[in-house]
Write a structure and sequence with these properties.
Helices cover 54% and strands 15% of the residues. The chain is built from 13 helices and 15 strands.
Length: 468
Amino acid sequence: MIVKIILCVCVWPLLPIMYVILAGMGKEQKSTLFGITLWQDAMKEKRVQELIKDYKKQLKRMTLFLFLVQFLTLLPPFFSIAMIIWMIWLFAAIAVPFLPYIKANKKMREYKAEYQSEHNENPRNSTYVDLTAAMEEKPKYFWKSTLIACIAGFIPAVLAVILDKTIKSPAVPELWVTEVVLLSMALVGVCCLWAVCCYNRQSVTAYTTESAVNIQFSRVKKYQWCRCFCILTWLSVMFNCLILAGFYLDSAYMTGFLIIVCILYCVIPMVLVGISCYVIQKQKEKLLKGRELLLSEDDENWIWGMFYYNKNDSRFCVDKKVGIGVTTNMAKPAAMISTIAVLAVTVVICIGASVFCAVEEFTPVKLEYENQQITAIHWKEEYQINKNAIKSVTLLEELPSLSRTNGTGMDTVYKGNFFSREYDRRFKVCLNPQEEPVLMIETMDGNWYLLGDSDSEKTEEIYEELTR
C-alpha cells in the first residue's frame, strides 16, 4: 500500500500541470484561438465566447474525473493489477484532457469557414518569412558549457566502477544497477545538449515587419531556453553525484535521502521551465506592444492546431501555434520516424513493465532439493547450491527486516539482493515473505542466502533433509 500511495503522490502533479497548460491553450494567443487564426471581430462573436466557456467546463470535468479515477489504483490487493491501472491512468491523464481542445479546434475551423463563406473570402495558406533576419548571423548560446556538463555527466558512472573495486559496502546495489541509473541520467544531459543545438539553429520567426524586433525577440527566446537546458544539464550532473553518494550512505538513511533528491530533481526543472516561459512571454509583450503583427494564415498546415505538417517548409522545427516552445515538422521523414519511435518505445516499456510485474507477482516461489542440490525457482531457476558447498544452514521462524538493494520486493515475492541491518550483511533472496519459516544458508565462498518455498511445509522438509 505504501508503494501505491507513493506512486499516486508522484504522478498527481501531472493533473494540475496538464490543466494549467490546456487552460492557457484555451485563451487567445498570437491572434489565435484553439489553433485557428482569428478572423475580424471573432472574439466578439457570441458563439466563440460560448465555445470558450464550454471548453473550460469540459476541461474542469475531465480533470476532476481523472483525479477521482486515480484512487482506483489503491483498491486492487495485488501490485501488478494496480500497476496496470496506473499505466492506463497515466496515458489517459496525458491524452484525455486534449479531447475538449480537439473538439474546440474543429468548431473554430467550422466557424471560420462559415465567416469566410458569408464574406466571400477565399481560404488562404500563407506564412511570413523575414529574409533580412534570415541573413543575420545566428549566435550560439551556452553550447560549450552544455557540452562540458554533458561530458561531466558520465564521470559519476566511471567513479562508480572505481568505488566498487575499492570501497565495499553491503547496502550498495550491484554495479550493473548503479551503472544503469547513472548512465540513464547522463543521457538526459545528451538530450539537453541536442535541445540547445536545435534552438541555436532555429530560424527567426516573423512577428512584425520590423526585422530588428524579430531578431531581438528571437535572441531573447534562444538565450532563455538555451540557458534553461544548460542549467538542467548541470543539474543532472549534480543529481548523478548525489545519487552515487546516496548509494554509499548507511542503509537507514539511503532510501529517504534518495527520495528527497528525486523529488527535488522533479520540482526544480519544472520551476526553471516555468521561469523561462514567464520571462519569454514578458519580453514578447514588451517588444511587440503597439506594433502591427503579421498573422500567418496557415491553419491547414496544423493538425488540431498542435502538429505541424507542411511539405513545402524546409524547416525541421517551428514555433508552436499555441503556447511557447517549438515542435517538429511532421512532413519531414526524420521527425515522423523519431516521433513514432519515441511513442513505440514508451508503449512497449509500459506494457512490458506491467506484464513483468504480473508474472513476478503471480508466479509462486519453489524450493527443490534433488541430487544433493537445493534449487530456488521463480518462473526460472534463480539460485542453485550444492550441499557440499553449504557451510551452515538455519531455519528462521521469522523473516528478518530487509531492505532491497536491487531485485523484486512485492507482497508475494522477495527476489534479488537485500540488506539486513539485524545481521549487518547482504543476502541473496528468493522467497515468499508471507510464508515462514525460511532457510538462512551460508556457503563456503562467503555468500549468504535466504530461501523459502510458497508452501511452508516444503521449506521445513528441505531443512530436515539438509540437516539429516
